[in-house]
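User: I'm writing a tutorial on reading structure tokens. Could you give me a worked example: one chain, its sequence, then its tokens, then a sentence or two explaining what the tokens reveal?
Assistant: Sure. Here is the example chain.
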Amino acid sequence: MKKIMNTLEVFAKAMVQPLMYLSVAGMILAIGSLLTNTTVTGLLPFLAWGPFQVVGKLMYETMMILINNLGLLFVIGIPAALAKRDKHQAALIGFMSYLIYLKTSNLMLIETGKLAEASGMLGLFGTGQASILGIQVVDMSVFGGILLGCLVGWVFNKTCEKKFGGAMQIYSGVRFSFACMVAVSILFGVVSNIVWPVVQGAISAMANFIKSTDVFGLFVYGFLERFLIPTGLHHLVYTPFQFTDLGGVLNLGETVVAGAYPIVMTELQMGVPFSDSIYYMAIGFTKMFGYIGIGAAFIHTAYPHNKKRTAATIIPLVVTACLASITEPLDFMFIFVAPVLYVLHACIAGLFIALLKICGVTAFCGGNMLASILMNLSAGVERTQWPIMLALGVAQILLYFFLFSFLIKKFNYKTPGREDDLSETKNDKTPEKVFNGNADAKFVVEGLGGKDNINTVENCFTRLRVNVKDAALVNDELINKTPNSGIIKKGNDIQVVYGLQVADVRKSVEDYLNIL
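And here are its predicted structure tokens:
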């Protein structure tokens, strides 16, 4: 069990590497979304000025390209984090492996005649396929990048030190790792094309069950839409209801409207009461309200000295969820470090869609909070019961906040601001003196027992994190000749607090190791 927990901890820390940039991306995305939002420009007409719109679109679209390619970020970031040496080589092999996997999946679809045709309205949504980097593949979404990234990291560590003699010497080391990953990536692409459509079919088969079980079906609908986010299978949950007759049929004389989305838009325009189809549009409810409670819980439970930094990270992501319906950056901050919380999150999301039906609320919950509020105001209370929707929204925020806060503290989940590297009992301030390059790196390496005793060198926000073979060889006196604020030992894991200069410290230590 201890070995499993250690593996999960390593995996969770590797996942953090690509995510650390998303707080910045989320902030820029939120600003871009506000600048280009028609509701906002209606309230503030000066924002409709061309240059503002161009800037807004640039901010939004350039960040969305990152959100839409999270799988690529993970397949590069995870191997780099897992690699024990030559991390940049592991990242490059991760990228090349991803391209090989994508092309393999695409060729399999072509050769088997299963390449789906994009529709004019939905593109490839609902087909089980997606276009990634311009290549049409079986849609494994972010999950494919995570799985392949872990494979790259594992294979790289097992093969990067392999040596050959004679003419074969050129294929030694990281080149051998790449050769191995060519085979692994092709195999991964072939297997995914066989296995993943079966999984997709099972999810699609749930649609009739959801349709036939009324309120409970709405709970399952909301649960699966959130729970399946990491796999990309959530598209197969909501798309059939929102755009096919599973979501309802509206007869208008000779015209027939099918699917929850076109039905709701038609009913809104006609001024008639909303039908039950509107509940299949309610997957935006939790995006508008629930993520406020989740973000508040993360900030509240962060260690005291880390609250400001956690708030600066989380708040832009909450705003992005509420205004742009983009939740993945926040989801991936706790899916793997606290999976129990994520299952609970999916249950709450499903529960509140069911509660909307039970309470007779037919308000529009599209995920964009500003647009949804204005749309409900224009439709009126009688048609929407929007005050009850707001009351349920407040209830959901409070439920998330109190449940998440309680469980995070009780089980010590390593959610944002509570990582082991940021213990609330330690002083992680930057030392007054500056680390002096190779001169101080020498003391660090010797203090850690020498080059042969060092397995890996990494860093978090403030600490140099080193795994050693024999902790008994660590000499605190030598390490303390360098400007640090403390040494923390956890078995063979040694952490030295260098504060915000830690990235430079790590580079100096790695440079010194390379010249030994």
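What the tokens reveal: Strands lie at 129-132, 135-138, 249-252, 255-258, 454-459, 463-468, 487-490, 493-497. Residues 167 and 503 are 39 Å apart (CA to CA).
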